[in-house]
Structures are given as C-alpha cells and as structure tokens.
Amino acid sequence: MAVTATASNRAKYAHARKMIDLSADSIRAILMRQGFVFNKDNHATRLNLKGYISATTLSVNASLQVLDSGNGFLTAGLVPGNKISMAGWTNGGNNTTKIISAVTSGAITVTDTSGLVEETAGNLVTIQADDELPTGNGYSQNGVLLTGQAVTEDDANDRAQMVCNNIDFSASGGTVGPTPGAILYDDTVSEKTIIGYLALGADHTIPNGAGLRLKNVKINLGG
User: Fold this and answer.
1) Sequence ranges of the domains in the chain
2) CA nearest neighbour of 94 among 71, 52, 127
3) Vertex 178 angle, CA 176 and 180, to 5°
4) How many angstroms separate the CA atoms of 14 and 167, rounded?
C-alpha cells in the first residue's frame, strides 16, 4: 500500500505566520469516510470536515438547490465535497444525505438531487457535515495523537519537512472503514488547522482484530 502525502495550503500559511508549531503542537490523525476527496484549498481547518448550521432561513428552490437567506453556509464551514445530513424539513424527501458539489454563502448545490422537493423556509432545519469515519469498533472520532513529530530543513528540495512516528489504528468488535486515507490536523490551535492528507491509494478496511499502520509519514511544506 503506497501512501502519498499532500500538505494543505492553510498549513503552509499558518506555518509561515508562526500560528502553528509542527514539532511541539498536538497533531491528530483521523480516518475519512469512503468517497472522501481531499482538496488542499478547501480543507483548511477541521470545521471544513464538520460544518454545521441550524436555522429557520433554509429553503429548497425549484432548481433543488438548498438556499439560506441568512448567508451562513460558508461561515458554517461547509465546502464542496462535504457529505451532509439534513433534518427538520417538512417534506420527508429533503431529510436525507447528500454530497455538496458547490457552495456559496447562500446556496448549496448537491451532486444528486433525487428525492429533493421544493420547500419554503420557516422550519428549523439542520445541516451537518461529517467526513470522518464514525466512532465504533475500536475507532474513535478525533482519531489518534501523533508522537515523535519533528521538523527538519530539507535544503536539497528547498522545503521544510515534518516527520513523525508510525501512526496506528486498530479494529475490535468489527471492521473499521472502508477509508481512503487520513487527515492530520493541529489540535493545539483554536482553528484546528488541517496539516495535510495521507492518501492510501485505494479504500482500505481494517479487519476485526487487525490494525492499520502508516509508516515513514512525511509532510513537505514549501518547495
């Protein structure tokens, strides 16, 4: 299993501004849901994985877009690619799970509009994004804490490089996954900066009683 690492652009910015310390801060690794696709621009902070809004200003228009007259979708942290669960609509078909294809402050477009129906605002509607695997079978949301991280100067490639000890996940009482990879985020800073993504190359399921070890992890910043 070949693992590839991609740093987020937010991590590069935060590192340059001395907002984060990759050698001293608490950094966590979380496993992502099947179908998750990392975007180094959109996935800036942990909020972009778990965006949430609850409002009476939400509606569904004739084009089956979800609208917010309060323009709160971006503030809520919602980004393209989020898997969202919606609840509170009068029309049951709108109480469903969808994938966001595009989002502005006032409109969400989803990849598949089947089942959605037009509905006016008024009810208290909630939209919750959660792109992390659920807690269960030995996996807990918020994942595992990295150990042994260090930042070195890589003059040959004109960059800084973060390394850490092996990252271990295990399954007990059932399988964990499938998952396409793991997000690393800084749990020390208030914004929970996303450091980067470790892609497994294909969906991986951890069998009951077994483990998943990510070895020789490196995140390159700059260069």
Assistant:
1) 4-45+133-221, 51-129
2) 127
3) 120
4) 23
